[in-house]
Amino acid sequence: MKRNSIFWLLAWMLSGPAYCAPLKVYFLAGIHSHIPAETFAAVRKAIESGTGAKVFDHPFAGNFQENSLIVAFGVDGAKAAEKLDPSIPVLDIFIPARSYLAVGQTREGISAIYIDQPIERQLRFIRLALPQSSRVGVLLGPDSRSLLPGIRQSAEHAKLEIVPEELSDPANLFVRLRSLLSRCDVLLAVPDPLVYNGESISGILLTAYRHGIPLVGFSASYEKAGALLALYSTAEQIGTQAVEFILDYVRTGKMPPPAYPVYFTVGVNRYVARSMGMDMPDESMLEEKMSREVP
After folding, report:
1. How far apart are the C-alpha atoms of 126 and 133, rounded to whole Å?
2. How far apart are CA 177 and CA 129, in angstroms?
């Protein structure tokens, strides 16, 4: 299809007979948001180029124009969106699934693209990247311990054993961590602010490295900081999926159901792999195998 044809198709979808004005997308983040500026820029570029909609920063007076949609960033953004006009649809992005369940289900018209990867995908990643590792350690805090039954169920399908350790007092973090590392082959980082935070991550990575246990992180920053492996979705990938959500909303008048990221990236820290004496497969090969394989 020619570019002009695509442009006019998008224009018709975004200002067609069901709507009297073109769609306007408003970005919303909480006052204490730590979302990087480049993340906002990447998502803005994806939405504007992928839908033709105009993207605005959130009006602090709360006065939204006709035919608006809010894209809320992170947990703080989702909470702020809850206080706004309930007739305006909201798409929460960069929000953990468990946080959305607590924040996003209080009214209709709200959906989400989670920041975390589905556990089935994470375990499949471990199985493909580290085929000799069968015991997967997980260090769980108050926010994540409820995930254990689901993690164990998924591990059975992946033919992996989950080795859990729970943490309730941050003062005991490294005692619990060393105990866990003595019983597992690989450490899977499960997002929990008590366990994995800016103050603890460097110590966790160093302790795992000294024990010879590879760590699988959930963001590019983990790979850069010293995790052997990382599985995550980039801002561009979340933006691409947000475009699909918005176009679906324009077409149907309803927000799609919440979903985990469709698009993802795998990262391998080659320096750590060499230091640990591990021969790791190529990232593109891993992504291709993960895309082909059925969970």
Report:
1. 8
2. 23
- Residue range 119-232+265-292 forms a domain whose CATH class is alpha beta
Q: Mind giving me the DSSP string for 58-104?
A: PPTT--PPSSEEEEEEHHHHHHHHHTS-TTS-EEEEEE-HHHHHHHT
Chain mean pLDDT for the chain: 88
Question: Residue for token digits 């820290």?
Answer: 269
Architecture of the domain delimited by 3-115+234-252: 3-Layer(aba) Sandwich (3.40)
Q: Token pair for residue 139?
A: 């260090």
CATH 3.40.50.2300 residue spans of the chain: 119-232+265-292
Average pLDDT over residues 14-27: 65
Residue 108: phi, psi to the nearest 5?
A: -75, 165
pLDDT, tens digit, 9 for 90 and up, residues 102-125: 775 667 889 999 999 999 999 999
Longest dimension (CA), the chain: 64
Q: What pLDDT does 30 receive?
A: 77
Q: What is the mean pLDDT of residues 146-161?
A: 95
The overall pTM is greater than 0.70: yes
